[in-house]
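anyone seen this seq b4? input:
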Amino acid sequence: MDAIEIRDVKRLGQLIRRTRKQQGLTLVTLAGVCHDPPSPDESGSYK
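predicted toks r here
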């Protein structure tokens, strides 16, 4: 895979959109690929 220079947020968004369309992913399926952020446990610590 060729390297792609990402200079700003707009370029990153374009890259994500192009890749998503190439792979046939919808925004919903793309969101499912992302992990939920960690939540603190009962003591407030992150594991």
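Residues 7-33 form one domain. The CA atoms of residues 12 and 43 lie 37 Å apart. kinda curious what u guys think
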